[in-house]
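Interim report to the steering committee. The following record documents the input for Adenosylcobinamide-GDP ribazoletransferase (259 residues).
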Amino acid sequence: MTSLNSHGLRFAFGTLTVLPVRVTRWDRGAARAGMLCAPLAGLVVGLLAAVPGTLLLLLGSGPLLAAVASAAVPAVLTRGLHLDGLADTADGLGSGKPADDALRIMKQSDIGPFGVITLLLVLLAQVAALDELYGRGWAYGAVAAAVAAVVARLALTLAARRGVPPARPEGLGAAVAGTVTVRAAVAAGAVVVAGCAAAGALLGGYGAPRHALAALAALGAAQLLLRHCVRRFGGVTGDVFGALAETAATTALVVLTFG
């Protein structure tokens, strides 16, 4: 079990980040452990995203620059993989074509108009939300950046549960689809939501329920997109996983600005 956990951490960090971690196993067991460890990879990405935003704000910059810095770090730490998946998924869904043709569009290297518009709106929403949160104080922005990144990777854990098929026989989607038991996915979700509530509690007031609600709303939005993609494409792909992560992160940030 210890060895599998080690391989799971390597799988999670090696496939979901650009951190120098070598994936030593690429089987279903390692994929299952890796997807369960995905929120841990998200926590590291989120904490690293909070650092430049917090430093800029403490050094006297405005909240907008801090927001841009925090939004940029996750893109850098994933080489834009999730953003690319979001754009490809938007092009596939927006094409209105049958599943095979839509999947073919998603595999093309260029980005279509649906992808460009979706990327622009999502990044604007993330920066706008972080600007609002950093404007309330560095702690609000830092916690939000961390929560959004963790919940984004939890959405991947839930999407890898049994009963969700792959759309293609190859690729990351096929490697991880159906590897996580429903019980393990629910347990991971409960732990992460509780952790988000605990992080929010550090801010005082209604921070705990607000951050728990943001996490739940993010997961709900990701699940709606997942159901739509499974219905349209016949299953999940690596691009769909990227779209789920960005959808969850953006939803969490937006909800945290309310109230």
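The two ends are 44 Å apart (CA to CA). The committee is asked to note this result when reviewing the revised timeline.
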